[in-house]
Amino acid sequence: MHHSAGYVITSGPDPPSCCLSHSVPPVAMAAWAVGVKAVLLDVSGVLYDSGGPAGGTAIPGSVQAVNRIRESGLKLRFCTNESQATRGQFVQKLQKFGFSISEEEVTAPGPAAKKLVVERGLRPHLLVHDDLLPEFDSMDKSNPNCVVMGDAAENFSYQNLNRAFQALLNMEKPILISLGKGRYYKETDGLKLDVGAYMKALEYACDISAEVVGKPSANFFMSALAEMDVKPEEGALTSQVCKKALMIGDDILNDIGGAQRCGIRAVLVRTGKYRPSDENHPDVAADGYVDNLAQAIDLLLSSKVSR
Amino acid sequence: MEGCHLHVCNNNRRHTTMAGRRILKAVLVDLSGTLHVEDTAIPGAQEALKRLRSAKVVVRFVTNTTKECRKSLLKRLTGLGFEIGEDEIFTSLTAARNLVEQRNVRPMLLVDDRALPDFEGIAAHSPNAVLIGLAPEHFNYQTLNEAFRLALDGAPIFAIHKARYYKKKDGMALGPGPFVAALEYATDTKAIVVGKPEKTFFLEALRSTGCLPEETVMIGDDCRDDIGGAQDVGMLGILVKTGKYRPGDEDKIQPGPYRTCDGFPQAVDHILSDLL
């Protein structure tokens, strides 16, 4: 395995293609940091590890890192696939860990799915965490014509999966909507299967393909950019907008691969679900690899200063 | 043939009587959904089996029913009035045990408790493999997370079979396949499947008969796993419209089933009148 950190020492033999080689001190410089105006942060595994009685623990340095992004004047948005709670409860939990974060700054799949269900006049059968149920309170759930599934955790019982399966079998045209399709994530007591694994189970059982709301879908990243008001300059192309943004996450496929497909640069942290083999992934290479969010922000801000 | 519909080989009858006639020597019969659904026999199936045995063919019962060891399976079928010998039954559990022994691994056993007698003597402490059967009581968040962590650390996943669902009295229920698919996706690996529709399963089942796949007919209610699997090794497949069968299942495989019949008795009638 290689541990290329995705940045180079400017005095080293291989300066990045941009003109950083003129900066004076041999400070660590990250090519991916240049020109960034807006930061998209994944939450679980980057800000904190979930699990345990307190609902999780902050990853060391991440609380301060978020504050430093705010002080720097960079635009900031939280882009999460978490679907174990409503956005409000989710933000409250993070505030308790000391994070400066508000509900309006979070792009999450729950509200996005709700919007989709309403727009298409669907009646959902829900396979979600109890804490996400309030998101769908006002909806007609009789005689369901779609299944909406999120990270239901303990609710992923055989009985509940069977009910969702039977609901799909009863539909003339089965529609399965999944809040993200992550494979697994890290909790304080170990790795846990994410919604994607159970989505695959139902896809396989019914021979269908799910519609994914959340990362890695391009719509989700683009709406996050729109919500943080990163706009094209007069006459600029969408691709140039994306270049101003940087995604930081711990999921090589959903955070890094998903963002890159939209033209957004993306850096992988070695926290959360990270495994060394992620740095040799056959399909996705991050623009940079950092030990944690704190190091990412160090590199990002030092690049800003040196310019 | 009342109750039988020819799907693909429209000219099969002429074909078999003229050039290159198939000589039928063996009949493989699926159990759950074909001879019985849970504790109820398919009407007329016991009688039909007797008629089949009066012909000069070897009969084997091949099953992906992973809940039961061979002994209890035999007891159940005998109780329903079927005349069957234990050595005529070849199950995916037997195939799985063979694989565990060949690979010399210690499996985490996600199988029904009733299947455990078939794994007597297999070491299961500090597991370094995951063996999955139909085990609803193990298919929960906690246990699947454990199996996932083992597999992510490199333990091979053995699937007794990958059936999508099966029929219960109160409706369809998820089979082991979806849970195998979940672990495969989460760990980015492929499970080794030992039951139907794997080619090795059908060949192993025939081994003790000395017959060739070309001399064999398979009767079952699962279009992909019974019929598709059997036809892939060169057998003829007869799909029955009992058990988990749903209209349109015939179209799930290419080429389609050699024949589709209303039930096991009609399939036997066809064999006796057209294939012998």
What's the short version?
The complex is a heterodimer of chains A (307) and B (276). Chain A is α/β, with parallel strands linked by helices.
Could you walk me through the main structural features you see in this protein, from its secondary elements to its overall organization?
Chain A: Its cofactor is Mg(2+). Chain A: Phosphatase that hydrolyzes imidodiphosphate, 3-phosphohistidine and 6-phospholysine. Has broad substrate specificity and can also hydrolyze inorganic diphosphate, but with lower efficiency. Chain A: Its main location: cytoplasm. The complex is a heterodimer of chains A (307) and B (276). Chain A has 307 residues and is of the alpha/beta class. Helix content of chain A is 31%, strand content 19%. In chain A, the strands form five sheets. A six-stranded parallel β-sheet of chain A has the order 7-6-3-14-15-16. Chain A has a four-stranded parallel β-sheet with strand order 8-9-10-13. In chain A, strand 14, helix 8 and strand 15 form a beta-alpha-beta unit. The N terminus of chain A is likely disordered. Chain B has two domains: 123 residues, Rossmann fold (3-Layer(aba) Sandwich), CATH 3.40.50.1000; 89 residues, 3-Layer(aba) Sandwich (Rossmann fold). Chain B has 276 residues and is of the alpha/beta class. In chain B, helix 5 crosses helix 6. Chain B has a seven-stranded mixed β-sheet, with helices on both faces. Chain B has a four-stranded parallel β-sheet with strand order 7-8-9-12, covered by helices on one side. Chain B has a two-stranded antiparallel sheet with strand order 3-4. About 4% of the residues of chain B have low confidence. Classes of the chains: A alpha/beta (307), B alpha/beta (276). At the A-B interface, helix 4, strand 12 and helix 5 of A face helix 5, strand 11 and helix 6 of B.
